[in-house]
Amino acid sequence: MAESTDTTIFLVSPDGSQRFPVRVNREVLSSKSRVFAAMLNSEEAEVPNCTDFESFVKLLKYIHSSNLKRDLREEGGVLDVLNLLKLFDDVGFDDGALSCLQYLEAVPWTVGESMEVRSVVHPLQSYGHHRDTVIARLTSYPSPDTEDSVMELMKGVTGNATFNNSMLRDEIRNLILDILIGDPPISRDGQQAFMKYAFQQSCDMLIDHCRVLSNQLTEMSTTYLSEKISQVTQHIMWLLGVMMDEKIADNVVDYWISKNEISEYYRKMNRSARCVVLMISATICIGIGSKKILAPMQARSSLLKMWLDFIYADYDKLVILPFFEKEVIEEGIGKTILTLPYDQQSRYFSDWFVKFQAGKACPNLRRAYQVWWRLSLLTDRDLGSDLIPIIFFQ
């Protein structure tokens, strides 16, 4: 730049305390930039309120460059080129802006870079075809095509072929997670719609298997269907885990208890299959107890009314399942009971204590029971009564 310079541009800081001189070629700048053409009408010019001397010097270097495409390749990456594109557009350096757009159109972007490309390129009013080719790689987010693709993935992960291939199933699950909660995640409404669809599809598949199993007589068919029920149930539990982590599982309780035919088929299934199905209700209780599922009171009450007796009846078999986390599930059930009205709490805890005191296999709800008992004492004392829960004297 120095060999043919004939003009000095002073870069002045916002407070005027710094004046940084840069020697430039007036003819080159005036011919390539509309802003500089208007500015450089003498041997000196001033750029006020300059907050980034380094970037401005880089801008001048690019305007003087004889090989823009080569220099852009050495710039560092998409975000650096986007910063240059904004500078070039600001000073009317059209050749530089076009070179940036050509570079951006030809290289891959990450998701984060795509969002930056959108924010910088979309508002540009010039550059015609070159701008349009970059915009063509962008779409509204999420687009209908994206939603359809995720729905197809959801169908795939609940398909029989996928369930029979654990590696494929896990890969599709990871792909779904990357799409739903990656960076940037899709909208909350989109997450809920996709996961709700998958949950409902899986529950419907479970009902079909349970219905068939409840009518099977041969040992071979029973074993096959029990395995299918286990696969679908574990998938539902995976879905529940994702939905609870993302705080979008509040509506699953209503849907689960609406499928009362599952509880009807449950009575006719073998114990192995029954215990696997029980884990869905137990997992929902974990979500309620950990405050990850905020279900309506009526739904919580119906959940326990429909499933708690089954949990008691098959608890000895339930505890030996390989994915059963005893303390976590017991805490979830106990805390779910504590979310009910006091009279319902009393009935459930009284019934539990009778079973527990008799040595029957059942979840250990001791911690939740203590909370209920202490609250009962406080309530009775406030009412001026000396009563304590009668269950302690049985």
TrEMBL record:
Domain BTB, which positions? 5-72
Q: Name one Pfam family in it.
A: BTB
Q: Per its UniProt record, what InterPro entries does this chain match?
A: At3g05675-like, At3g05675-like_ankyrin, BTB/POZ_dom, SKP1/BTB/POZ_sf
**Highest rank taxon of the organism:** Eukaryota
**Part of which pathway?**
Protein modification; protein ubiquitination
Q: What is this protein called?
A: BTB/POZ-like
Q: Which Gene3D superfamilies match?
A: Potassium Channel Kv1.1, Chain A
Ribonucleoprotein among keywords: no
Organism of provenance: Macleaya cordata (Five-seeded plume-poppy)
Q: Which GO terms describe its biological process?
A: protein ubiquitination
Write the record's keywords in alphabetical order, separated by commas. Answer: Ubl conjugation pathway
Function description: May act as a substrate-specific adapter of an E3 ubiquitin-protein ligase complex (CUL3-RBX1-BTB) which mediates the ubiquitination and subsequent proteasomal degradation of target proteins.
